[in-house]
Amino acid sequence: MFDRIDGGMRVRMSPFDFVNQINHGKKNLMDETPELEREYKQFIINRALSFNHDTALYANEMNLQNHLDSRLQFDFFLNIIRPKKRYGKWLKRENNEVLELIKNYCKCSYAKAREYVTLLNDSQLNIIKQKVDTGGLKGTNERNYHSSND
Q: Is residue 1 within 8 Å of 35, Cβ to Cβ?
């Protein structure tokens, strides 16, 4: 991140500031502060633009032209994309209970747990679930506890 000084105030710059300028601000930040060229993260900006249907093809083109320097990519986006408020949702990894069980049982990473889940059958997964279960109130046990105390 780069701290830009505007009238004595420090303004924190992030890749999303560039995306906001590309999408609707249309202010060339690199002309104002040439040091910002080092802060331009091509991958993140291309990815952010790829979530919108009207900017996805432009982001793909810049992915193909990744040898271009940051200023050229930013100028391309700034001048070719029409100003509009765009709200693209970032994809997030969903929580998978089976993978979490395997991660806890085997003390391994998420990627390794995804490999292990293809090797295990249902009975082995049930054994792992029983061994990892620490008890306590969660899920069906919590509902049974509350209904018995009413």
A: no
